User: Fold this.
Amino acid sequence: MQFELSTEYFRYVANEYLVPFGIRLVIALAVFIIGKMVVQFIVKTVDKITEGRIDESLRKFLSSVLHGLLMAVVIIAALERLGIQTTAAVAILGAAGLAIGFALQGSLGNFASGVMIIIFRPYKIGDLVKLAGEVGVVEQIEVFNTIVITPDNRTIIIPNGQVAGAPIENLSAKGQLRVDLVFGIGYGDDIRKAKDIMTEVVNSDARIIKEQGVQIAVSELADSSVNFVVRPWVTVADYWDVRFDLTERIKIAFDENGISIPFPQTDVHLHKVA
Assistant:
């Protein structure tokens, strides 16, 4: 009698609980598997559509975000088919997302700025730029950071939020740069002679873009010197070499022709007093 009661009990439990749960479990698994396949199809389709149209790093990031969001929907749908109440879970996830958003305000700001930089492209890889006070060549543009290599080969990782929040100077945008140099000569030196020397040195450099013209002129009558500006145009690649070479060659030419570059008189006086 006890065996018959136990069999009936198990039969009852199976019919009332196990079989319905098994059916719900099968349906939930079907929803999850089919949903996962649909998510993969959608993500791959979007990935193919955006390939070549947006930056590679941004495309991968957006694909991963889209995949995560769609999979969250699939998991919630599968849990509902299983009979689990998901309202509380959704509320918890929303609160957690809000808390994470506040905790990651800086990162989210960098991400938003990175997206804007990638879309509008104020600079590209290989450009000589001045970002957040740093001058260098752009090596990589990431979603959160821009990596710049300085002339002395330092690697600077600049958060995109700082880049977007300050003036962006793209020195390569026009393909040419003006080299701005200042040379001072003594008041007793021949201004015309000094100008001819500088003109000869500049014109002898084949890297100077002659079509743009070269400005060599007296810019200031300073306390202890007559200051000239020397402003030739060069390509971006030649900028630093030309700048350094002209500074050295003009100084040597001045020395060979008896043109003096005076010390500041105020500093000399202070040194003597000290």
Remarks:
- Residues 2-50 form the longest helix (49 residues).
